[in-house]
Amino acid sequence: MKLPIVIHTEEDYDRAQQRVEELNAMPDGAEKERELHALAEAMLAFELRRDDADD
Known about the structure:
Blueprint: H1 10-25, H2 30-54
């Protein structure tokens, strides 16, 4: 069982963006789609938390 992706810091967010770029360069597949989806959810959650902190 794989652990969920969680982004806590700007550095984590930057690494997630790099991973998305790496995945986009790979051939399509189910595993790639699952990881891209998990990264997108984690990045969105981080952005929402960051926006709430700014308010």
